[in-house]
Each structure stands twice: as C-alpha cells, then as structure tokens.
Design a protein that fits this description.
transmembrane helix; membrane; globular; 11 helices; mainly alpha
Length: about 375
C-alpha cells in the first residue's frame, strides 16, 4: 500500500519570507517619504534612473512616492497575510520586481563579475594543482607571470591603479542609487518567496503534483539547465568575436576602432556570461553535488545545497525581474539585437526551474 505524497511547506522558510517582507515594507516608508520630500535629490531622481514605465504628465509628481510610502504601510499588513490573500503578495512581486525595476542592477552585476574574472583566472592554476607543494609552485608561477607582464609593458599596473581609483569613485557616486535599485529588485524576490509560501500553505495536506517527485524533477531540471546554459551563448560568443578580425555586436564592428580597455571589458563580460552558463549545468551534473578534484581541502565532499541554491536563486530572480525593463529599454532605443543577445526572459525562469529541481533532488524541497 502506498500513500500519495502531499505538500508540506517549510514553516521556517515561510516565517523568514514573512519577516523579510515586513522589514522590506518598513524601509519602503522612509524611501517613499525621501523621494516625496526631496524630489530633486531623491533616489528616483538620479541621472541614471530610467524608468521602464512612466506615469502620464497629468498625474502629479508626488503621486508615485506617496504610493510607495503607502505600499510600505500596506505591506506591513500584507506580510502577515493568510494563504487566500496570495494574489495581493503576487501583485507586490510583479509591481516591484518587473514594473518598477530598471536595468541598472543587471548592468552593475555584469561589470562586477567581469571585474573579478581576472582574479578567478589567476586562481585557477593554483586550484588545479595537486598537493601543497604543487599549489605553491603554481602560485609562484602565476606571480612570476604577473611580474613579467608588468616588466614587459603588456600590463601597465600604474594605469590599472588609476583605473581602480576611478572605478571606486564612480561606485561611491552611484552607491545610494544602486542600493535603492537593488532594494527594488530584492522586494520583488521577497514578495515572490512569500507568495510561493502562501500558495504551498494553502495546499497543505493535498496531494502534491507528480512533477515534484525527485525522479521527475531530475528530467525536467536537466532540460531547464541546458536551456539556461544556451541562453548564455549568444552574448558570450558574440563577445568572443572581439578576439578575431571579424568583431561583431549587433552588426559588424571595425576592430581597429575598439580601444584596448573596451576590448578587455567586453571579453571579461563575455567570459563571465559563458562561465555563468557553465555553472547552470552544475544543477544537473555530479560536480554540482560533490566538489571536483581540483578544489583544495573540500574535494570529493558533498556540496552543501545552499552553496548552489542561494546564489542561483538570486541570479534567477535578478534575470527574471530585469527582463521586462531590459526588453522595454531595447525597444525604446531601437536596439532589438539586445533582446536576443540577452534572453533574460528565458534565462531567468529556466535557471529558477533548474534550481528548484536541484533543491528537490537534494532534499531541500520535499513533496509529501
């Protein structure tokens, strides 16, 4: 005799989502009041802020910040909503995750990944080396290569230092604006998590869908992982053409017109995209559950599920939520090639599905 599986939501996860929604709503009130009382200097008046959707000119300028503060007050109550009120929390997720978000967070995240990519590349030989002696030799070789690059003039470390100084100043200048933009996207993710928790709580005791079974999740999760991987290819491979005389980005480019700094940034961004695509495959292959041989200390040990689930969930939410403003911006600027070069509207949901399947296989999400 077998018993049909039923859904049993994780109570701790539900409480965490409710607490996060409450705290997020608490911060929405002062942010809304800040923009209302200081329209010229508020976080939504920055020169980089380009809203996806704008209100008609007939609507007073104070309406939007007042609505944000009011949404914060209502959110304090909605954070404690019963399962039947999940459409309200879903509305919060859509409005803040897709309608009020901009492309700034994804651009900042992309350049951040590209910035750290050279450090990762320099660390790879050390990670691949076997034994303590091998790692010391690899580290010495990497250091020697870096010194040689500087002495031969291939890399101008003085220019690198000046670039880092300018980059730090730029980040400091947009810090508050970027923090608020990240807060908007985080709100979408938090309200999405709360909505899912409420939906699951409403299904408590009912038979779980068959697709939540681990063996079924392994199949559709593998398909989702490969779809997410494929979404990284258009942009990554396009940037790789900058290594050839036939540079291309939405059309042929004159390679002689691409300065070295732009070429380096472009290639780093391309490699970051391709690296992210490869990591998507970790959701379905063995190296996503056990540390590979080249990882020192932890090699062969099980990968803690949250090490993969948490960053994958963050990236999936970011890609999904910025897809609407990204497509809108591409259409508005008549840059339709960006719609297929950055298929976030597929990449985000596919990565989310792959992450869910991974969580089911690892026992983090259970159908009972």
């Amino acid at each position: 005799m077998t018993t049909a599986p039923t859904t049993r939501p994780r109570q701790r996860t539900g409480r965490a989502a409710a607490t996060a929604a409450f705290l997020w709503s608490l911060t929405a009130i002062p942010i809304g009041l800040w923009q209302l009382l200081d329209p010229a200097g508020g976080p939504f008046s920055h020169e980089l802020y380009e809203p996806t959707f704008t209100l008609p000119d007939a609507v007073p300028a104070w309406t939007a910040p007042a609505a944000l503060a009011a949404a914060g007050v209502l959110g304090l109550l909605a954070a404690r909503a019963r399962p039947g009120l999940w459409p309200l929390t879903a509305l919060y997720a859509v409005v803040f995750g897709m309608l009020l978000s901009t492309t700034s967070p994804i651009a900042f995240a992309g350049y951040l990944c590209a910035f750290f990519l050279p450090l990762v590349v320099a660390a790879v030989p050390v990670m691949l080396a076997r034994g303590a002696a091998g790692r010391l030799i690899a580290a010495a070789a990497v250091l020697a290569a870096l010194v040689a690059l500087g002495l031969t003039g291939v890399v101008d470390y003085a220019a690198v230092g000046e670039f880092l100084r300018m980059l730090g100043a730029s980040v400091a200048e947009i810090g508050v604006y970027m923090l608020v933009q990240t807060w908007v996207v985080a709100g979408g993710a938090i309200w999405s998590a709360l909505t899912l928790s409420l939906v699951l709580r409403g299904r408590e005791g009912r038979p779980a869908p068959a697709w939540l079974a681990p063996e079924r999740a392994a199949r559709w999760g593998r398909a989702a992982s490969w779809i997410a991987f494929a979404c990284a290819l258009p942009y990554g491979l396009t940037r790789m053409t900058w290594l050839t005389p036939w540079a291309w980005m939405g059309g042929p480019l004159d390679s002689s017109m691409i300065d070295p700094a732009t070429r380096v940034w472009g290639l780093c961004l391309g490699f970051a995209a391709l690296g992210g695509g490869v990591l998507c495959l970790g959701m379905t292959y063995r190296w996503g559950t056990r540390w590979p041989f080249w990882m020192p200390v932890v090699k062969g040990r099980p990968v803690p599920p949250k090490v993969a689930i948490v960053p994958a969930t963050v990236v999936a939410a970011l890609f999904t939520f910025v897809s609407v403003p990204f497509v809108a911006l591409s259409v508005r600027q008549d840059a339709l090639e960006m719609v297929w070069a950055f298929p976030f509207y597929v990449w985000g949901p596919a990565l989310a599905a792959a992450t869910l399947a991974y969580a089911i296989r690892r026992g983090v999400v259970e159908a009972r």
